[in-house]
Amino acid sequence: MEFQNYINGTWVKGRRTFQTINPANEELVADIAQAEVSDVAAAVGAATEAFKSWRLVPAPLRGEILYKVGDILKQKKEELAQLLTRDMGKVIAEARGDVQEAIDMAYFMGGEGRRLLGYTAPVEMPNKFGMAVRDPSGVVGLITPWNFPIAVPSWKIFPALVAGNTIIWKPSPETPAISAAFVKVFEEAGLPAGVFNLLLAPGADVGKALVEHPGVRVLSFTGSTTTGRAIAESAARLNKKVSLEMGGKNAIIVMDDANLELVTDATLWAAFGTTGQRCTAASRLIVQKGIANKVKESLAERTKKLRLGDGLDPNVDVGPVINKAALERIHHYVQLGQKEGARVLVGGSIASVHPPESADSVRSSVSKSVDESVHPLQSVGKGFFYNPTLFDGVRPGSTLEAEEVFGPVLSIIEVGSLEEAIEVNNRSQYGLSTSIFTQDVNRAFTAMRDIFTGLVYINHGTTGAEIQFPFGGVRGTGNGHREAGQAALEVFTEWKSIYVDYSGKLQRAQIDNREE
Ligand code: NAD
Predict the structure, then answer these.
(1) What is the average pLDDT across 40-65?
(2) CA–centroid distance, residue 150 to ligand 1 (Å)
(3) Long-range contacts for 262-265 (Cβ within 8 Å, ≥24 apart)?
Protein backbone atom coordinates (compact mmCIF):
# COMPACT_ATOMS: atom_id res chain seq x y z
CA MET A 1 0.00 0.00 0.00
CA GLU A 2 1.32 3.46 -0.84
CA PHE A 3 0.17 6.73 0.69
CA GLN A 4 0.67 9.91 -1.28
CA ASN A 5 0.87 13.67 -0.95
CA TYR A 6 -2.26 15.70 -1.52
CA ILE A 7 -1.87 18.91 -3.50
CA ASN A 8 -4.69 20.91 -5.04
CA GLY A 9 -7.19 18.10 -4.58
CA THR A 10 -5.01 15.46 -6.26
CA TRP A 11 -3.05 12.57 -4.74
CA VAL A 12 0.50 13.00 -5.99
CA LYS A 13 3.17 10.34 -6.35
CA GLY A 14 6.73 11.30 -5.38
CA ARG A 15 9.91 10.68 -7.33
CA ARG A 16 11.03 8.77 -4.27
CA THR A 17 9.35 6.90 -1.44
CA PHE A 18 10.10 6.39 2.23
CA GLN A 19 8.72 3.87 4.68
CA THR A 20 6.73 3.84 7.86
CA ILE A 21 7.43 0.99 10.28
CA ASN A 22 5.25 -0.45 13.04
CA PRO A 23 7.27 0.16 16.24
CA ALA A 24 5.72 -2.89 17.92
CA ASN A 25 7.20 -5.39 15.45
CA GLU A 26 9.33 -3.39 12.97
CA GLU A 27 7.13 -4.54 10.09
CA LEU A 28 6.44 -2.27 7.15
CA VAL A 29 3.16 -0.38 7.49
CA ALA A 30 3.30 1.38 4.12
CA ASP A 31 5.46 2.96 1.46
CA ILE A 32 5.01 6.70 1.37
CA ALA A 33 5.36 9.05 -1.59
CA GLN A 34 8.02 11.53 -0.58
CA ALA A 35 7.36 15.25 -1.03
CA GLU A 36 10.25 17.38 -2.30
CA VAL A 37 11.06 20.96 -1.38
CA SER A 38 9.67 22.00 -4.79
CA ASP A 39 6.26 20.61 -3.77
CA VAL A 40 6.04 23.33 -1.11
CA ALA A 41 5.71 26.03 -3.78
CA ALA A 42 3.08 23.95 -5.59
CA ALA A 43 1.09 23.49 -2.39
CA VAL A 44 1.37 27.17 -1.44
CA GLY A 45 0.25 28.11 -4.97
CA ALA A 46 -2.79 25.82 -4.70
CA ALA A 47 -3.66 27.08 -1.22
CA THR A 48 -3.28 30.71 -2.29
CA GLU A 49 -5.65 30.20 -5.20
CA ALA A 50 -8.15 28.24 -3.11
CA PHE A 51 -8.13 30.94 -0.43
CA LYS A 52 -9.73 33.37 -2.87
CA SER A 53 -12.97 31.41 -2.88
CA TRP A 54 -12.81 29.51 0.45
CA ARG A 55 -12.73 32.75 2.48
CA LEU A 56 -15.97 33.80 0.75
CA VAL A 57 -17.84 30.58 1.53
CA PRO A 58 -20.21 31.61 4.34
CA ALA A 59 -18.76 30.40 7.63
CA PRO A 60 -21.91 28.35 8.52
CA LEU A 61 -21.40 26.40 5.27
CA ARG A 62 -17.73 25.88 6.04
CA GLY A 63 -18.95 24.59 9.42
CA GLU A 64 -21.29 22.14 7.69
CA ILE A 65 -18.36 20.55 5.86
CA LEU A 66 -16.66 20.13 9.23
CA TYR A 67 -19.78 18.40 10.59
CA LYS A 68 -19.59 16.04 7.63
CA VAL A 69 -15.93 15.35 8.45
CA GLY A 70 -17.04 14.54 12.01
CA ASP A 71 -19.71 12.14 10.70
CA ILE A 72 -17.24 10.28 8.47
CA LEU A 73 -14.67 10.11 11.26
CA LYS A 74 -17.32 8.47 13.44
CA GLN A 75 -17.97 5.83 10.79
CA LYS A 76 -14.27 5.20 10.25
CA LYS A 77 -13.19 5.49 13.87
CA GLU A 78 -12.11 1.86 14.33
CA GLU A 79 -10.36 1.60 10.97
CA LEU A 80 -8.42 4.82 11.62
CA ALA A 81 -7.59 3.82 15.20
CA GLN A 82 -6.10 0.51 14.05
CA LEU A 83 -3.98 2.21 11.40
CA LEU A 84 -2.89 4.80 13.97
CA THR A 85 -1.72 2.07 16.37
CA ARG A 86 0.21 0.34 13.59
CA ASP A 87 1.77 3.63 12.50
CA MET A 88 3.03 4.78 15.91
CA GLY A 89 2.34 2.12 18.52
CA LYS A 90 -0.07 3.57 21.12
CA VAL A 91 -2.53 1.07 22.59
CA ILE A 92 -5.78 0.74 20.71
CA ALA A 93 -8.03 2.30 23.38
CA GLU A 94 -5.86 5.41 23.28
CA ALA A 95 -5.83 5.40 19.48
CA ARG A 96 -9.63 5.44 19.56
CA GLY A 97 -9.41 8.40 21.95
CA ASP A 98 -7.05 10.15 19.53
CA VAL A 99 -9.64 9.86 16.74
CA GLN A 100 -12.43 10.86 19.12
CA GLU A 101 -10.64 14.16 19.82
CA ALA A 102 -10.89 14.96 16.13
CA ILE A 103 -14.59 14.05 16.09
CA ASP A 104 -15.20 16.34 19.06
CA MET A 105 -13.18 19.13 17.50
CA ALA A 106 -14.98 18.76 14.15
CA TYR A 107 -18.37 19.36 15.81
CA PHE A 108 -17.09 22.05 18.17
CA MET A 109 -15.44 24.06 15.40
CA GLY A 110 -18.31 23.28 13.00
CA GLY A 111 -20.47 25.18 15.49
CA GLU A 112 -18.05 28.11 15.37
CA GLY A 113 -19.21 28.52 11.78
CA ARG A 114 -22.30 30.16 13.31
CA ARG A 115 -20.36 32.18 15.88
CA LEU A 116 -16.82 33.34 15.01
CA LEU A 117 -17.83 36.20 17.23
CA GLY A 118 -16.64 39.72 16.70
CA TYR A 119 -18.17 42.68 18.56
CA THR A 120 -19.54 46.17 18.28
CA ALA A 121 -18.88 48.98 20.75
CA PRO A 122 -20.21 52.51 21.17
CA VAL A 123 -18.31 55.11 19.14
CA GLU A 124 -17.37 58.71 19.94
CA MET A 125 -19.29 60.48 17.17
CA PRO A 126 -22.98 60.71 16.34
CA ASN A 127 -24.19 58.82 13.26
CA LYS A 128 -21.25 56.50 13.22
CA PHE A 129 -20.94 52.75 13.78
CA GLY A 130 -17.96 50.63 14.82
CA MET A 131 -17.37 46.88 14.75
CA ALA A 132 -14.52 44.40 15.04
CA VAL A 133 -14.68 41.28 12.86
CA ARG A 134 -12.44 38.27 12.40
CA ASP A 135 -10.72 37.85 9.06
CA PRO A 136 -8.99 34.63 8.06
CA SER A 137 -5.21 34.97 7.95
CA GLY A 138 -4.67 33.33 4.55
CA VAL A 139 -2.45 30.32 3.86
CA VAL A 140 -1.39 28.60 7.07
CA GLY A 141 1.34 26.02 7.60
CA LEU A 142 0.80 23.28 10.17
CA ILE A 143 3.72 21.20 11.46
CA THR A 144 2.88 18.41 13.87
CA PRO A 145 4.48 15.58 15.90
CA TRP A 146 3.81 11.85 15.87
CA ASN A 147 2.54 11.27 19.41
CA PHE A 148 -1.07 12.40 18.78
CA PRO A 149 -1.16 12.03 15.00
CA ILE A 150 -4.87 12.84 14.66
CA ALA A 151 -5.77 14.77 17.81
CA VAL A 152 -3.00 17.39 17.69
CA PRO A 153 -3.44 18.20 13.97
CA SER A 154 -7.19 18.41 14.48
CA TRP A 155 -6.69 21.16 17.11
CA LYS A 156 -5.18 23.20 14.29
CA ILE A 157 -6.97 22.02 11.14
CA PHE A 158 -10.57 22.57 12.29
CA PRO A 159 -10.20 26.13 13.64
CA ALA A 160 -8.06 27.10 10.63
CA LEU A 161 -10.68 25.81 8.18
CA VAL A 162 -13.77 27.20 9.86
CA ALA A 163 -12.13 30.63 10.00
CA GLY A 164 -11.64 30.55 6.21
CA ASN A 165 -7.92 29.79 5.92
CA THR A 166 -6.35 27.31 3.54
CA ILE A 167 -3.80 24.81 4.82
CA ILE A 168 -0.56 23.07 4.09
CA TRP A 169 0.04 20.32 6.61
CA LYS A 170 3.44 18.73 7.20
CA PRO A 171 2.91 15.89 9.68
CA SER A 172 5.67 13.89 11.34
CA PRO A 173 7.47 11.41 9.07
CA GLU A 174 6.81 8.81 11.78
CA THR A 175 3.06 8.86 11.11
CA PRO A 176 2.52 9.44 7.39
CA ALA A 177 0.00 6.66 6.79
CA ILE A 178 -2.52 7.81 9.38
CA SER A 179 -2.02 11.43 8.27
CA ALA A 180 -2.91 10.60 4.66
CA ALA A 181 -5.91 8.53 5.82
CA PHE A 182 -7.09 11.54 7.86
CA VAL A 183 -6.84 13.89 4.87
CA LYS A 184 -8.89 11.42 2.78
CA VAL A 185 -11.78 12.03 5.16
CA PHE A 186 -11.78 15.75 4.31
CA GLU A 187 -11.71 14.91 0.60
CA GLU A 188 -14.67 12.56 1.10
CA ALA A 189 -16.54 15.31 2.98
CA GLY A 190 -16.30 17.54 -0.09
CA LEU A 191 -13.66 20.08 0.91
CA PRO A 192 -12.80 22.04 -2.26
CA ALA A 193 -9.48 21.38 -4.03
CA GLY A 194 -6.51 23.34 -2.71
CA VAL A 195 -8.08 24.17 0.66
CA PHE A 196 -6.19 21.41 2.48
CA ASN A 197 -2.82 20.18 1.18
CA LEU A 198 -0.62 17.46 2.64
CA LEU A 199 3.15 17.08 2.34
CA LEU A 200 4.79 13.90 3.62
CA ALA A 201 8.55 13.86 3.97
CA PRO A 202 11.33 12.61 6.23
CA GLY A 203 13.92 15.05 7.57
CA ALA A 204 13.53 18.78 8.07
CA ASP A 205 13.86 20.22 4.54
CA VAL A 206 10.20 20.32 3.54
CA GLY A 207 9.19 21.72 6.94
CA LYS A 208 11.89 24.39 6.70
CA ALA A 209 10.78 25.35 3.19
CA LEU A 210 7.23 25.73 4.47
CA VAL A 211 8.40 27.93 7.33
CA GLU A 212 10.42 30.09 4.96
CA HIS A 213 7.87 30.42 2.16
CA PRO A 214 6.65 34.04 2.09
CA GLY A 215 3.17 32.96 0.99
CA VAL A 216 2.51 31.22 4.32
CA ARG A 217 1.31 33.84 6.84
CA VAL A 218 0.74 31.76 9.96
CA LEU A 219 2.63 28.77 11.31
CA SER A 220 1.21 26.52 13.95
CA PHE A 221 3.74 24.08 15.34
CA THR A 222 3.60 21.31 17.90
CA GLY A 223 6.75 19.36 18.68
CA SER A 224 10.02 19.60 20.53
CA THR A 225 11.29 22.84 22.01
CA THR A 226 14.46 22.73 19.91
CA THR A 227 12.54 22.55 16.63
CA GLY A 228 9.95 25.10 17.78
CA ARG A 229 12.60 27.66 18.63
CA ALA A 230 14.32 27.19 15.26
CA ILE A 231 10.99 27.68 13.47
CA ALA A 232 10.18 30.80 15.49
CA GLU A 233 13.57 32.32 14.67
CA SER A 234 13.17 31.80 10.90
CA ALA A 235 9.56 32.93 10.91
CA ALA A 236 10.33 36.11 12.85
CA ARG A 237 12.52 37.33 9.99
CA LEU A 238 9.44 37.13 7.74
CA ASN A 239 7.03 38.70 10.25
CA LYS A 240 4.90 35.59 10.49
CA LYS A 241 2.56 34.76 13.31
CA VAL A 242 3.84 31.57 14.98
CA SER A 243 2.02 29.45 17.51
CA LEU A 244 4.26 27.00 19.37
CA GLU A 245 3.28 24.05 21.55
CA MET A 246 6.43 22.34 22.75
CA GLY A 247 7.93 20.12 25.42
CA GLY A 248 6.83 19.43 28.96
CA LYS A 249 8.19 18.24 32.30
CA ASN A 250 4.90 17.80 34.06
CA ALA A 251 4.51 17.05 37.74
CA ILE A 252 2.01 15.35 39.98
CA ILE A 253 2.13 16.79 43.49
CA VAL A 254 0.98 14.45 46.25
CA MET A 255 0.15 15.85 49.68
CA ASP A 256 0.16 13.73 52.85
CA ASP A 257 -3.65 13.76 52.99
CA ALA A 258 -4.11 12.40 49.44
CA ASN A 259 -6.19 9.34 48.57
CA LEU A 260 -3.45 6.74 47.98
CA GLU A 261 -5.41 4.46 45.68
CA LEU A 262 -6.46 7.36 43.48
CA VAL A 263 -2.89 8.67 43.37
CA THR A 264 -1.62 5.27 42.22
CA ASP A 265 -4.24 4.81 39.51
CA ALA A 266 -3.85 8.35 38.21
CA THR A 267 -0.06 8.33 38.29
CA LEU A 268 0.22 5.07 36.35
CA TRP A 269 -2.10 6.49 33.70
CA ALA A 270 -0.40 9.86 33.50
CA ALA A 271 3.17 8.55 33.57
CA PHE A 272 2.94 5.43 31.43
CA GLY A 273 -0.07 6.06 29.17
CA THR A 274 1.07 6.47 25.55
CA THR A 275 4.30 4.94 26.91
CA GLY A 276 5.11 8.27 28.56
CA GLN A 277 5.19 9.96 25.17
CA ARG A 278 2.56 12.61 25.80
CA CYS A 279 3.39 16.28 26.05
CA THR A 280 1.30 16.18 29.23
CA ALA A 281 2.85 12.96 30.59
CA ALA A 282 3.72 13.08 34.28
CA SER A 283 7.47 12.67 34.51
CA ARG A 284 7.91 14.04 38.04
CA LEU A 285 6.13 12.90 41.17
CA ILE A 286 6.63 15.54 43.85
CA VAL A 287 5.54 13.81 47.02
CA GLN A 288 5.29 14.99 50.60
CA LYS A 289 7.54 13.03 52.96
CA GLY A 290 4.77 11.66 55.22
CA ILE A 291 3.12 9.65 52.43
CA ALA A 292 6.18 9.07 50.23
CA ASN A 293 7.00 5.49 51.24
CA LYS A 294 3.41 4.32 50.84
CA VAL A 295 3.17 5.94 47.41
CA LYS A 296 6.44 4.37 46.29
CA GLU A 297 5.41 0.88 47.46
CA SER A 298 2.02 1.10 45.83
CA LEU A 299 3.40 2.47 42.57
CA ALA A 300 6.25 -0.03 42.39
CA GLU A 301 3.91 -2.96 42.86
CA ARG A 302 1.52 -1.79 40.14
CA THR A 303 4.24 -0.66 37.72
CA LYS A 304 5.76 -4.15 37.72
CA LYS A 305 2.43 -5.58 36.64
CA LEU A 306 2.00 -3.40 33.55
CA ARG A 307 1.87 -5.52 30.42
CA LEU A 308 3.99 -4.45 27.49
CA GLY A 309 3.19 -5.43 23.95
CA ASP A 310 1.61 -4.64 20.62
CA GLY A 311 -0.99 -1.92 21.14
CA LEU A 312 -3.49 -3.81 18.97
CA ASP A 313 -3.69 -6.47 21.70
CA PRO A 314 -6.47 -5.20 24.01
CA ASN A 315 -4.76 -6.75 27.04
CA VAL A 316 -1.66 -4.65 26.66
CA ASP A 317 -1.20 -1.65 28.99
CA VAL A 318 1.94 -0.10 27.49
CA GLY A 319 2.94 -0.09 23.83
CA PRO A 320 6.36 0.46 22.26
CA VAL A 321 8.19 3.77 22.03
CA ILE A 322 8.27 5.37 18.61
CA ASN A 323 11.64 4.17 17.25
CA LYS A 324 15.11 2.93 18.05
CA ALA A 325 16.48 6.45 18.51
CA ALA A 326 13.84 7.06 21.21
CA LEU A 327 14.79 3.80 22.93
CA GLU A 328 18.41 4.90 22.96
CA ARG A 329 17.57 8.40 24.22
CA ILE A 330 15.42 7.05 27.06
CA HIS A 331 18.08 4.56 28.10
CA HIS A 332 20.70 7.29 27.99
CA TYR A 333 18.63 9.37 30.43
CA VAL A 334 18.16 6.37 32.71
CA GLN A 335 21.91 5.75 32.84
CA LEU A 336 22.55 9.45 33.42
CA GLY A 337 19.99 9.47 36.26
CA GLN A 338 21.84 6.62 37.96
CA LYS A 339 25.18 8.37 37.52
CA GLU A 340 23.68 11.47 39.14
CA GLY A 341 22.76 9.41 42.19
CA ALA A 342 19.09 8.53 41.65
CA ARG A 343 17.96 4.96 42.34
CA VAL A 344 15.93 2.75 40.00
CA LEU A 345 12.98 1.26 41.91
CA VAL A 346 11.44 -0.54 38.93
CA GLY A 347 12.43 -0.96 35.27
CA GLY A 348 15.44 0.94 33.99
CA SER A 349 16.06 -1.31 31.01
CA ILE A 350 15.16 -2.05 27.43
CA ALA A 351 12.49 -4.76 27.25
CA SER A 352 12.04 -7.71 25.00
CA VAL A 353 8.45 -8.54 24.25
CA HIS A 354 7.54 -11.97 23.01
CA PRO A 355 4.52 -11.86 20.75
CA PRO A 356 1.64 -13.99 22.07
CA GLU A 357 0.91 -17.14 20.10
CA SER A 358 -2.63 -17.75 21.29
CA ALA A 359 -5.40 -15.91 23.10
CA ASP A 360 -4.42 -17.66 26.36
CA SER A 361 -0.82 -16.70 26.11
CA VAL A 362 -1.88 -13.08 25.53
CA ARG A 363 -2.74 -12.83 29.19
CA SER A 364 0.59 -14.29 30.21
CA SER A 365 2.67 -12.30 27.78
CA VAL A 366 5.53 -10.82 29.74
CA SER A 367 8.31 -8.41 29.19
CA LYS A 368 11.82 -9.36 30.14
CA SER A 369 14.56 -6.98 31.03
CA VAL A 370 17.58 -7.07 28.84
CA ASP A 371 20.89 -7.19 30.64
CA GLU A 372 22.41 -3.94 29.44
CA SER A 373 25.95 -5.14 30.08
CA VAL A 374 25.39 -7.81 27.40
CA HIS A 375 23.09 -5.85 25.09
CA PRO A 376 23.75 -2.20 25.83
CA LEU A 377 21.17 -0.80 23.44
CA GLN A 378 19.80 -3.83 21.67
CA SER A 379 16.32 -5.18 22.00
CA VAL A 380 16.39 -8.97 21.59
CA GLY A 381 12.89 -9.24 20.24
CA LYS A 382 11.31 -7.16 17.53
CA GLY A 383 9.98 -3.73 18.34
CA PHE A 384 11.08 -0.86 20.56
CA PHE A 385 10.03 -1.51 24.14
CA TYR A 386 11.22 0.09 27.36
CA ASN A 387 10.29 -1.17 30.80
CA PRO A 388 8.20 1.39 32.70
CA THR A 389 10.68 2.94 35.10
CA LEU A 390 10.43 4.49 38.55
CA PHE A 391 13.31 6.53 39.92
CA ASP A 392 13.63 7.37 43.58
CA GLY A 393 15.80 10.05 45.18
CA VAL A 394 15.83 12.37 42.19
CA ARG A 395 17.32 15.68 43.15
CA PRO A 396 15.72 18.95 41.99
CA GLY A 397 18.01 20.45 39.37
CA SER A 398 19.45 17.10 38.21
CA THR A 399 19.25 16.23 34.50
CA LEU A 400 16.55 13.65 35.05
CA GLU A 401 14.45 16.15 36.96
CA ALA A 402 14.96 18.98 34.48
CA GLU A 403 14.88 17.54 30.96
CA GLU A 404 12.02 16.01 28.99
CA VAL A 405 12.73 12.27 28.62
CA PHE A 406 9.60 11.57 26.55
CA GLY A 407 9.35 7.94 27.57
CA PRO A 408 8.03 5.77 30.41
CA VAL A 409 10.23 7.20 33.15
CA LEU A 410 8.89 8.75 36.35
CA SER A 411 11.15 10.60 38.78
CA ILE A 412 10.12 10.72 42.43
CA ILE A 413 11.15 13.83 44.37
CA GLU A 414 10.41 14.21 48.09
CA VAL A 415 9.43 17.55 49.60
CA GLY A 416 8.39 18.79 53.03
CA SER A 417 5.49 21.11 52.29
CA LEU A 418 3.00 22.41 49.74
CA GLU A 419 5.08 25.56 49.28
CA GLU A 420 8.20 23.54 48.53
CA ALA A 421 6.25 21.31 46.11
CA ILE A 422 4.97 24.32 44.20
CA GLU A 423 8.42 25.86 44.14
CA VAL A 424 9.95 22.67 42.70
CA ASN A 425 7.14 22.49 40.16
CA ASN A 426 7.44 26.10 39.04
CA ARG A 427 11.16 26.18 38.58
CA SER A 428 10.98 23.79 35.62
CA GLN A 429 11.97 25.32 32.29
CA TYR A 430 8.65 23.93 30.99
CA GLY A 431 5.13 24.83 32.06
CA LEU A 432 2.44 22.66 30.50
CA SER A 433 0.52 20.62 33.07
CA THR A 434 0.59 20.10 36.85
CA SER A 435 -1.71 18.14 39.08
CA ILE A 436 -2.14 18.02 42.82
CA PHE A 437 -3.69 15.36 45.01
CA THR A 438 -5.08 16.64 48.28
CA GLN A 439 -8.39 16.50 50.10
CA ASP A 440 -7.82 19.87 51.72
CA VAL A 441 -9.74 22.61 49.92
CA ASN A 442 -7.38 25.32 51.18
CA ARG A 443 -4.35 23.54 49.70
CA ALA A 444 -6.22 22.92 46.44
CA PHE A 445 -7.08 26.59 46.01
CA THR A 446 -3.58 27.72 46.99
CA ALA A 447 -2.20 25.35 44.35
CA MET A 448 -4.65 26.61 41.68
CA ARG A 449 -3.44 30.13 42.37
CA ASP A 450 0.29 29.51 42.68
CA ILE A 451 1.05 26.81 40.12
CA PHE A 452 2.38 28.38 36.94
CA THR A 453 1.47 26.02 34.13
CA GLY A 454 -1.12 26.24 31.33
CA LEU A 455 -3.11 23.30 32.74
CA VAL A 456 -3.82 22.48 36.38
CA TYR A 457 -5.63 19.39 37.61
CA ILE A 458 -6.99 18.79 41.10
CA ASN A 459 -7.19 15.12 42.12
CA HIS A 460 -6.55 13.93 38.57
CA GLY A 461 -3.34 13.14 36.65
CA THR A 462 -1.63 15.59 34.30
CA THR A 463 -3.40 14.36 31.16
CA GLY A 464 -6.94 14.49 29.86
CA ALA A 465 -7.59 17.94 28.41
CA GLU A 466 -11.04 18.57 26.90
CA ILE A 467 -11.27 20.35 23.57
CA GLN A 468 -13.62 23.13 24.70
CA PHE A 469 -10.93 24.66 26.94
CA PRO A 470 -7.72 26.42 25.89
CA PHE A 471 -4.71 24.10 25.74
CA GLY A 472 -1.08 25.11 25.97
CA GLY A 473 1.76 25.96 28.25
CA VAL A 474 4.02 28.68 29.59
CA ARG A 475 7.80 29.20 29.82
CA GLY A 476 9.66 26.74 27.51
CA THR A 477 6.43 25.00 26.49
CA GLY A 478 4.78 27.77 24.53
CA ASN A 479 4.93 31.30 23.20
CA GLY A 480 1.67 32.68 24.53
CA HIS A 481 -0.83 31.14 22.14
CA ARG A 482 -3.39 28.45 22.93
CA GLU A 483 -4.96 25.62 20.99
CA ALA A 484 -8.52 24.33 21.34
CA GLY A 485 -11.51 26.18 22.74
CA GLN A 486 -12.35 29.52 21.19
CA ALA A 487 -8.80 30.62 22.02
CA ALA A 488 -7.67 28.62 18.96
CA LEU A 489 -9.37 31.14 16.70
CA GLU A 490 -6.94 33.84 17.84
CA VAL A 491 -4.15 31.99 16.07
CA PHE A 492 -5.99 31.66 12.79
CA THR A 493 -7.74 35.02 12.49
CA GLU A 494 -6.79 38.66 12.22
CA TRP A 495 -8.93 41.33 13.83
CA LYS A 496 -10.31 43.90 11.41
CA SER A 497 -11.88 47.05 12.90
CA ILE A 498 -14.47 48.69 10.66
CA TYR A 499 -15.92 52.20 11.10
CA VAL A 500 -19.01 53.35 9.22
CA ASP A 501 -19.71 57.08 9.26
CA TYR A 502 -23.24 57.80 8.07
CA SER A 503 -23.32 61.50 9.11
CA GLY A 504 -22.56 62.80 5.62
CA LYS A 505 -19.93 65.19 6.94
CA LEU A 506 -16.32 65.08 8.12
CA GLN A 507 -16.23 63.96 11.75
CA ARG A 508 -12.69 63.86 13.01
CA ALA A 509 -11.67 61.29 15.59
CA GLN A 510 -8.24 61.28 17.25
CA ILE A 511 -8.26 65.04 17.46
CA ASP A 512 -9.25 67.10 20.42
CA ASN A 513 -12.03 69.23 18.93
CA ARG A 514 -14.28 69.46 21.95
CA GLU A 515 -15.11 72.93 23.16
CA GLU A 516 -14.33 73.56 26.85
P1 NAD B 1 9.94 17.24 16.56
O2 NAD B 1 10.20 18.62 17.00
O3 NAD B 1 11.09 16.36 16.30
O4 NAD B 1 9.08 17.25 15.21
C5 NAD B 1 7.85 17.95 15.11
C6 NAD B 1 7.58 18.25 13.65
O7 NAD B 1 8.53 19.22 13.17
C8 NAD B 1 7.70 17.06 12.72
O9 NAD B 1 6.67 17.13 11.76
C10 NAD B 1 9.06 17.27 12.09
O11 NAD B 1 9.17 16.64 10.83
C12 NAD B 1 9.09 18.77 11.95
N13 NAD B 1 10.43 19.38 11.86
C14 NAD B 1 11.58 18.92 12.38
N15 NAD B 1 12.58 19.82 12.17
C16 NAD B 1 12.03 20.87 11.51
C17 NAD B 1 12.53 22.12 11.03
N18 NAD B 1 13.81 22.47 11.21
N19 NAD B 1 11.68 22.96 10.41
C20 NAD B 1 10.39 22.64 10.25
N21 NAD B 1 9.85 21.48 10.68
C22 NAD B 1 10.67 20.60 11.30
O23 NAD B 1 8.96 16.60 17.65
P24 NAD B 1 8.41 15.09 17.73
O25 NAD B 1 9.52 14.18 18.14
O26 NAD B 1 7.64 14.76 16.51
O27 NAD B 1 7.35 15.20 18.93
C28 NAD B 1 7.70 15.09 20.27
C29 NAD B 1 7.72 16.45 20.95
O30 NAD B 1 6.47 17.10 20.75
C31 NAD B 1 7.90 16.38 22.45
O32 NAD B 1 8.83 17.35 22.85
C33 NAD B 1 6.52 16.72 23.01
O34 NAD B 1 6.52 17.28 24.29
C35 NAD B 1 6.03 17.68 21.98
N36 NAD B 1 4.57 17.79 22.00
C37 NAD B 1 4.03 18.94 22.55
C38 NAD B 1 2.66 19.08 22.63
C39 NAD B 1 2.05 20.32 23.24
O40 NAD B 1 0.88 20.56 23.01
N41 NAD B 1 2.78 21.11 24.01
C42 NAD B 1 1.82 18.07 22.13
C43 NAD B 1 2.40 16.93 21.58
C44 NAD B 1 3.79 16.81 21.51
Answers:
(1) 98
(2) 14
(3) 262/437, 262/459, 263/295, 263/298, 263/437, 264/295, 264/298, 264/299, 264/302
